[in-house]
Amino acid sequence: MIFRTIIIEDEQLARERLKKLLTKHEQNIQIIAEAENGNKALELINKLNPDLIFLDIQMPGMNGFEVLEKIEKLPIIIFTTAYDEYALQAFETNSIDYLLKPISPERLNQAISKLNQFYQKNEQFNENIMKMLNNLTHPQKDLFQVKVGAKILFIKHKDIYFFKAEEKYTFLYTYDKKYILNTSLNELEIDFSQNFVRVHRSSFVNLDHIQEILKLSMNKYIVIMNDKVKTELPLSRKAKSKLVK
Length: 245
Description:
The protein is of the alpha/beta class. The chain is built from 8 helices and 15 strands. The mean pLDDT is 84.
């Protein structure tokens, strides 16, 4: 199998090195294009429809994960990254390979061998790719990024009490703090499919931080959170059927 391949890497020296290493795999790899940033990568992928991409994760502007979200037809992906081994442990069980930079010839050989083996198992391979894409574009990771001025804070999922839409904005609430987000509740529902529930059109809560559900009248309930101020949130009829037996 010859894989029509695009190399996506913002550093020219890294691109040249990878191209040189891939010359020894001409029986499998045909390089059809290169991209130095996410925008160019997206344009080339959608235009050329490659079989395989070598995709850098950290790039200026649109990063590798954001590129994946916008691809019209998913190719096979081998990531190239400067992340250390610890940061990659979460991906060890998936079928797509990761090459730590600087890439060694031996490690690239392993990736190409793995690529050929997976391709022979089309059904399982496609299933694993879709699983990986879902994990990457809507990651069930343990940390959530919040921008505060020039800083980026990392908040653990277990420390997020709830999300709440207020007028035109969405806010993330911890035990005693509040952060503004540029993400809608609908988008958050995709990223936080585990252990979070939409209790109302305006609020999305962590089940672990619900203190109690209180009935106010025949058809009116509220959710009381166990944050510092014991926030009270309305409970919709739809959510009530899932939470109240």
